[in-house]
Amino acid sequence: xxxxxxxxxxxxxxxxxxxxxxxxxxxxxxxxxxxxxxxxxxxxxxxxxxxxxxxxxxxxxxxxxxxxxxxxxxxxxxxxxxxxxxxxxxxxxxxxxxxxxxxxxxxxxxxxxxxxxxxxxxxxxxxxxxxxxxxxxxxxxxxxxxxxxxxxxxxxxxxxxxxxxxxxxxxxxxxxxxxxxxxxxxxxxxxxxxxxxxxxxxxxxxxxxxxxxxxxxxxxxxxxxxxxxxxxxxxxxxxxxxx
Length: 243
Known about the structure:
The chain has one domain. The chain contains four helices and 13 strands. It has helices spanning 7-20, 57-62, 211-215, 218-231; strands spanning 50-51, 70-76, 79-93, 100-113, 121-132, 136-141, 147-149, 158-168, 175-182, 185-192, 194-195, 203-204, 207-209. The strands form three sheets. Strands 6, 7, 8, 9, 10 and 13 form a six-stranded antiparallel β-sheet that branches.
């Protein structure tokens, strides 16, 4: 005798499976490409470095600055900046002889403020002191190469501070220091000027790179190299704040 499967339970089971099964799905397809010329999202652009007009005398006087060698006025991602280069001459007793010796102090001071409604506040100060007992003293910035740049394009200014100093008699190399500052970071090279005299072999010109130079970004190292090449054969000039 052949058994028959009840038809109603079987149909109910088929119906239940159909109900549990989701709608048919298509294979994954890539997202449509934007139309030609359509704008695409991008990272926010850095605030560009802007060189501003020379600062007014009243603002300098409020900072206690009367006759700076040079000012560099700019705006970057951190707000408004003012770099002031100066030289202060004085005398001090020689530690060995007790006699008065000439002293030249080169100063570079960075002031910052958020906007014109607020006052400038000193951010940092860099000093180079040269003492000279009874000899010729020279100390100055290379003003043409003291500048604000944005070498890495991040909107924060770097400040280049190249200077030279000399204490002696006759023709000797000047001591050269080139400092690049970005915020609290400092990168530095130093050495001697190259002395070139007609009819004689050049001498001096040696350079020593600090560990900070080796650790600097490539764009910063290239900039320091360029400034070194521009200044290391140049003597001090009266226009640079020399005597």
